[in-house]
What we know:
Blueprint: H1 3-16, H2 22-34, H3 36-52, H4 64-84, H5 98-149, H6 174-182, E1 218-221, H7 227-231, E2 245-249, E3 254-255, E4 258-259, E5 277-281, E6 286-289, E7 324-325
Antiparallel strand pairs: 1-2, 1-7, 2-5, 3-4, 5-6
Amino acid sequence: xxxxxxxxxxxxxxxxxxxxxxxSAGEVRxxxxxxxxxxxxxxxxxxxxxxxxRSADVEPPEDLVDRTMARIRSARQTEALLxxxxxxxxxxxxxxxxxxxxxxxxxxxxxxxIFVPAVRQSKSRTLxxxxxxxxxxxxxxxxxxxxxxxxLPASAAQRQRWLAREQEPAVSNSVALFRLxxxxxxxxxxxxxxxxxxxxxxxxxGMVDFxxxxxxxxxxxxAMGSEWMRANAGVSLAGVARQMAxxxxxxxxxxxxxxxxxxxxxxxxDNHARTGQNVxxxxxxxxxxxxxxxxxxxNNIYLAEGILDYSGDEAPVNVTDSxxxxxxxxxxxxxxx
Length: 337
């Protein structure tokens, strides 16, 4: 193995384990966008680490302290009994004082308190980086699609309703993204945020959408009809492409086929425990953001500009309005219950 390759491996391993500082992480993200060999190495290491880390985190039991102290009391009683029988410290039977046992128990509890959160934090960072990689690869697929079709993928349906209600079925916005799967621009697994999971599937002939909501964890720009998708190729958006969000971790405002009014004023995606979201922009770069107001001129990427109440047929109010719809919509009102 040559030295540059080894250095790339060490850099990517630190990045995937969440140990890379910001300059190093920035270098990795830039090279993932520009260097196919580096992306392949990243994918190989990511799969290897994923295979090694399949076992779930072991949570400390809630009654750990009580059980530890019970063990100490039991040891003390046993030691007293041995002393009464003249067996204490005789014939090679080691015993410990209460103080020694207490010190051991305290050390064990301290290790649990330090080690378990550190492991959890490291795994969370790894999942975030894997999600970042997924979003970037969806961006590459969107770019390839746009180069060949002169537009981003959209839904061909004429209906504008993306949340169902009585007697009015919805069109799932994810139909547009499924075109990337159907045309083999992207694998179905890329649409699974690693922090959420849910499984994958094999695309079959005749499928026009993801088979269920658990198979897609990312929200995409409103794609009902083709007006906005045609406009995105024009010069009107060239100057704001770096600020125009078109995809991100799933919207928190519309969940399970319903509008959640309580989440309007401070929505952050649930994918990463409400710590933020990975966001893909029209120039196809990806950023991690801790707030939703990261669109053009501070536009909230999960809401149509200026609209705080939704019935399910709203659309972006202008060409620079990011409005990321639910990753997947229920087909009819009865199925959302």
